[in-house]
Amino acid sequence: MARYVILSDLTDEGAKTLKKNPDRVKEVNTELKNMGIDVLDQYIVLGDFDFLTIVDCESEKMILKAIVEQLSRGSIKTRTYRIIPVNQFIESLK
């Protein structure tokens, strides 16, 4: 499994949806789970982004498909990064 961090910004439409249905955040996490992506942690960010989500996923193809699905709805804009645990990085240098 590969780990990714997804930084998300709500669009105006996404903010309206969230105001009407705050549980939509959890619904999206369930949708991601159904696509084979495990949401490990999620935070509201006070700053340049609205959400920070950490996920595990089997492949880049799978994460890309899920991100495009979410983006196609027009509710969010995202930046997705592959992240590597520090211990794994250290081991790779030995």
From TrEMBL:
<dbReference type="InterPro" id="IPR014845">
    <property type="entry name" value="GYD/TTHA1554"/>
</dbReference>
<protein>
    <recommendedName>
        <fullName>GYD family protein</fullName>
    </recommendedName>
</protein>
<dbReference type="Pfam" id="PF08734">
    <property type="entry name" value="GYD"/>
</dbReference>
